[in-house]
Write a structure and sequence with these properties.
Rossmann fold, GMP Synthetase, Chain A, domain 3, 3 domains, 9-stranded mixed beta sheet, 15 helices, 18 strands, binds xanthosine-5'-monophosphate
C-alpha cells in the first residue's frame, strides 16, 4: 500500500499530521526523525513530511535528519521546524524574528500550481506558531504564499518536489489544510488513497494467517473493552478455532459486567474461557492500602491465572494483545508521553519462560480507527461508546483497602451515576463518569435515626485522550438527582461530593 512517512521532530502535532492523512485515506506512519535513509527506503515512502518541533535550526543540539533524505528523489514537505530544516539544508537563512507569530494569520496565496491546487480562495486563515522564519530562500525555491509578517510562509522547489510551510496545515484552524495535505500526498507524491478500515481488515487477516503456523494456537485475554474485543474479533475471522479467549473476573468489575462480557462474546460467536477468580483477588488484596501495591498484586495474580489457563488448555505459541499505535511509537525526540502512561497502566506481563510470541494486530491503529474496525467486525454499538474502564478495575476507584463493602458502594453508586447521565443525554458527551469511595465517613440522619455513613465522591470528566481532563460542568439539578438517589438507595452512604479537580494535577482515577 502506498505510504507517506512523517519524521517526528518532537511536535505535539506529529500524530495529528498522520491522522489527517489517514482521514483522506492515505496510509501514513510516524517514524523517528533520525532514521537512516536506507531504513527509511525499506519503508518505500511515496513522500516524506518533516514535522514541526520545539528546537531552532541554528541551535547546536537541533535534531537533524539523515542529510541524504534531501537528495533521495522522494518528495518532501517540511512543516514549521521541518520547513526551516529544508531551507537551512539547501543554503537559505533562518533567523529569529522580532515578530513572533502565534495563532491565526491571513495567508495570501501567490502560486496555485501544485501545493495550493484546487483551492479557490486567494486568502485563507492559517495557524502559525513560530519565532524563527526563513529570511533568505535557497536557490531553486520560490515563495508560494505569505502572511503579513512572514514573507515566505509557503515555499517550494517544484522541480525537486520539495516544499515548506511555516504554518500548520494539520490543525483545524488552518482553512483548507486538508486540501494542502491532499495535494502533497496525492498529487505531488502520487500516493494512492488506499487506506480504509475495510482494507486494514483484509490486509491484517492475511498477515495474521501468514504469521500463525498451521498447528499453532493463540491465547487472547479479553476484558470486554473495545481493544481486546476487536483483537479477538479480528483473530477469530483470521484463524477461527485456533484462537482461545480468556476472560478473568477479578471481582473488581462494574455492576453485572461479567454477565455482559460473557453475553457479548456469545453474541459475537466467540468462545471464551470464563475464570471466576473474585475470591482469589480479594484475598490477596486484603489489608493492602497502598495504590501501587494494589496494582502490582492484581498484575501478578492476572499473570498467575493466565499461566494456569495456558497450561491447562495449551499448548499455545502466541499471545494476542490490544496495543494501539500511540503506545508503540517511540518518537526520536519526545520519547512519547504515551509510553510513560502505559507503564503506569500496564496490568503486568506474563513470565518469559512461557515462551509466547506476541501478536499485536491493532498496533498500527488509532483509537477512532479501532472503533471503526470494531463496528465493521460486528462489535455491538453499546460497546463502541462505553466509557474506558481501568484494567485493575474498581481497585483504582476505591481509596485504601479494597473491601466487599466498598466494592458494593462503588458499584451501586457508579451505576446510578451512569444511568442518570444516560437519561439526561450526557453519557455520550463526556469521557468518563463514576463514583469513588474511601474510608472517610460523615454523619447523616435517615428517617429519625442518626447514621454514620461513607462519603462518596462523583468524578465526571471531559477529555480528548485522557492525557489531560477537566471536570464536567453538569447542571446542578442533575448532580442533585444523582446525589439524592445515591444517599437514598445505596446503603451506608451519608454524603455525596462532586470532584472539581482537573488532570493534571489530579489524575482521573484516584488510585
Ligand atoms: P489516570 O488515572 O491516569 O487515567 O488519569 C487515565 C485513563 O486511563 C484509565 N486507567 C487505566 N487503564 N489500566 C488501564 O487499562 C489502568 O491501570 C488504568 N488506570 C487508569 C482511566 O480509566 C482513564 O480513562
Amino acid at each position: 500500500m502506498d505510504k507517506i512517512v512523517v519524521l517526528d521532530f518532537g511536535s505535539q502535532y506529529s500524530h495529528l499530521i498522520c491522522r489527517r492523512l489517514r482521514e483522506i485515506n492515505v496510509y501514513c506512519e510516524v517514524l523517528p526523525y533520525n532514521i537512516p535513509l536506507s531504513e527509511l527506503k525499506s519503508n518505500h515512502p511515496k513522500g516524506i513530511i518533516l514535522s514541526g518541533g520545539p528546537a531552532s535550526v541554528y541551535s547546536e543540539k537541533s535534531p537533524r535528519p539523515d542529510n541524504k533524505i534531501f537528495d533521495a528523489g522522494i518528495p518532501i514537505l517540511g512543516i514549521c521546524y521541518g520547513h526551516q530544516l529544508l531551507v537551512d539544508h539547501f543554503g537559505g537563512k533562518i533567523k529569529r524574528t522580532d515578530r513572533r507569530e502565534y495563532g491565526r494569520a491571513d495567508l495570501i496565496i501567490e502560486n496555485k500550481l501544485d501545493l495550493f491546487k484546487n483551492i479557490d480562495n486567494e486568502v485563507i486563515k492559517c495557524w502559525m506558531s513560530h519565532g524563527d522564519a526563513a529570511e533568505v530562500l535557497p536557490t531553486g525555491f520560490k515563495i508560494l504564499a505569505h502572511t503579513p509578517s512572514s514573507s515566505s510562509a509557503a515555499v517550494g522547489n517544484y522541480q525537486k518536489g520539495l516544499y515548506g510551510l511555516q504554518f500548520h496545515p494539520e490543525v483545524v484552524h488552518t482553512e483548507k489544510g486538508v486540501e494542502i495535505l491532499k495535494n502533497f500526498s496525492q498529487i505531488i507524491s502520487k500516493a494512492k488513497p488506499e487506506w480504509s478500515m475495510e482494507s486494514f481488515i483484509e490486509i491484517s487477516i492475511s498477515n495474521i494467517r501468514k504469521a500463525i503456523g498451521k498447528e499453532e494456537r493463540v491465547l487472547c485475554a479479553v476484558s470486554g473493552g473495545i481493544d481486546s474485543t476487536t483483537v479477538a474479533a479480528l483473530l477469530k475471522k483470521a484463524i477461527g478455532d485456533k484462537l482461545c479467549c480468556v476472560f478473568v473476573n477479578h471481582g473488581l468489575l462494574r455492576k453485572n459486567e461479567e454477565k455482559k462480557v460473557v453475553d457479548l462474546f456469545k453474541y459475537m460467536g466467540i468462545e471464551v474461557i470464563y475464570v471466576n477468580a473474585d475470591k482469589r483477588f480479594l484475598e490477596k488484596l486484603g489489608g493492602v492500602k497502598d495504590p501501587e501495591k494494589k496494582r502490582f498484586i492484581i498484575g501478578e495474580e492476572f499473570a498467575d491465572i493466565f499461566v494456569e489457563v495456558a497450561k491447562k488448555n495449551g499448548p499455545f505459541q502466541w499471545l494476542a494483545q490490544g496495543t494501539l499505535y500511540p503506545d508503540v511509537i517511540e518518537s526520536g525526540v519526545s520519547g512519547g508521553p504515551a509510553a510513560i502512561i502505559k507503564t503506569h497502566h500496564n496490568v503486568g506481563g506474563l513470565p518469559k519462560w512461557l515462551n509466547l510470541k506476541v501478536i499485536e494486530p491493532l498496533s498500527m491503529l488509532y483509537k477512532d480507527e479501532v472503533r471503526k474496525t470494531a463496528s465493521l467486525l460486528g462489535v455491538p454499538h453499546d460497546l463502541l461508546i462505553r466509557h474506558p474502564f481501568p484494567g485493575p478495575g474498581l481497585a483504582v476507584r476505591i481509596i485504601g483497602e479494597v473491601t466487599p463493602e466498598k466494592l458494593r458502594i462503588s458499584r451501586h453508586a457508579s451505576e446510578i451515576v451512569e444511568t442518570e447521565l444516560q437519561k439526561a443525554d450526557f453519557y455520550d458527551k463526556i469521557w468518563q463518569a463514576f463514583a469513588i469511595v474511601g474510608d472517610d465517613k460523615a454523619v447523616g440522619v435517615t428517617g429519625d435515626e442518626r447514621t454514620y455513613g461513607h462519603i462518596v465522591t462523583i468524578r465526571v470528566v471531559d477529555s480528548i485522550d485522557a492525557m489531560t481532563a477537566d471536570w464536567t460542568r453538569l447542571p446542578p439539578e442533575l448532580i442533585e438527582r444523582i446525589s439524592n438517589r445515591i444517599t437514598n438507595e445505596v446503603e451506608n452512604v451519608a454524603w455525596v461530593c462532586y470532584a472539581v479537580s482537573s488532570k493534571p494535577p489530579a489524575t482521573i482515577e484516584p488510585q
